[in-house]
Amino acid sequence: MTTTAGGLGRASDWDPTAPETFDSSHEVYAELRRRCPVPWSDAFGGFWAATRYSEVVRVARDSETFSTAVQNVVPHVPRAQRRPPLHFDPPEHGIYRAPMDRVLRRSVVRRLEPAFAEAARELLGPLLARGGGDYSQEFALPYAAQCFALFLGLPVDQVLEIRRIGVAYSFAIQEMDRARVMAASDELYAIARAIVEDRRADPRDPDEDLVTSLLRASGDPERPIPYDLVVATVRQTIVAGIGAPHAVLGSAAVHLSRDPDLQDRLRADPGLLPATVEELLRLYAPYRVFARTATRDVELGGRTVRAGEAIAMIFPSANRDEAVFDDADRLDLERRPNRHLAFGRGAHRCPGAAMARLEMTAALGELLACTTRVEPDGEVEMFNWLEFGPRSAPLRLLPRS
C-alpha cells in the first residue's frame, strides 16, 4: 500500500485496523519497536505512530514541536469548535486545566472511595448470583458510568446515555462517517449544555464540583473562560471520563482471571492492590489514539515527520518498551520505579489519574473480596482502534460463601 500524505509516496508500515485479540496487539507492537519504531500507516487519512517510550515522552512533552491544537486524535475528528483542554497548547491550556485540577486532586476525590466500593458491590451482586457474565458490559461499563455520575453529580441513566452516544461517536469516527459524527457530537454538546445550565442555576461547591469550578473560572476578570468553552470542556470530559475506565477495567479483570496465583496473593494481602493497579495500568493503558501535529519538519525515531503530519502516541506499546521496563510483559509487584505512561506525560497528563486509580482499586478490591476464584469463560472481544480494551469479557465468578 502507498500513500501520498505530505506530498510523498510512502509505504504503509502496519495496519492499525487489523482485527485484534486480547494479546495480539502487544506482539505487533513489540515487532514494531524492534523493526520500525515510528511506523507510518495510510489508515484514517495517514499518520505516524510513536511506539517506543522515548519517542512517546518526547512527543508528549514538546508542545512547541508537537502541537495538540490541530489534530490531536487519530482519526482526525471534524469539529465545529475546539474542546478544552485537549485542543489547546500551553500556556493557554493551563487556563482550562486549573479549574479541573482543583476538583480532581486525590485529596478531593478520595471522599468518593466508599461510594465507589458500594457501587462495585451492588453491580457485582447479579453476576455473583449467576456465577458470572460479561464483566465488561455488565460491570465495567455501568460501574464507570456510576463513578462518573457520583463525581459529577448526575443521574446514572444520563451518564449511561452519554456513554451510548460516545460509543456510537467513536465508531462513526473510525468509519469516517461525517454525518453520524456530527449528529452524535451535537447530542453530546446538548447534554453538556444542559448540565452547565443546571449548575449555573444551582451552583455547588467549586472545590468539589467540576462544572461549578469551570463556571467560576468563566468569571475570572484576568483570564475568563468563555461560556461556550465551559460547555466544550464538559463535553470533552464526560466522554473521556467514562471510556477509559470502562476499557482498562475490562483488561484488568481478564488479566486477573488468567492468573489465579495473583488472585490468591491479593486476597491474602490486599495491601498489594495499589501496586497491582499500577502494573495493570502499565500493561493495559486504554488509549493509543491521542496524537500531536508536527509544527515543523522533525526527525523522530529515524523517520522524517513533515510539518502538518499527525503522530499518534501508542501508550500500550511504550509501557512495554524493553529498553525501559525489565521483563516488560510480566506483572511485577516489586517494579520500582514504575514510570508508566497510562496517564500520558507533560502538560496534557490526564487530570483524572487520581480518580481512575480509586475506581480501579475499589472495583478490583470488591471483585477479589467477593469471590474465591475468577476464571475466563469465553472469548474476549476487543473494542475498535479508538479504545484499547475488551468490549466483551465473559468471566466465571465463584462467589465467597
UniProtKB/TrEMBL annotation:
The organism's place on the tree of life at top rank: Bacteria
Example GO molecular function: iron ion binding
Source organism (scientific name): Microbispora catharanthi
InterPro entries: Cyt_P450 (IPR001128), Cyt_P450_B (IPR002397), Cyt_P450_CS (IPR017972), Cyt_P450_sf (IPR036396)
Protein name: Cytochrome P450
Span list, region Disordered: 1-20
Similarity comment text for this entry: Belongs to the cytochrome P450 family.
Keywords on record: Heme, Iron, Metal-binding, Monooxygenase, Oxidoreductase
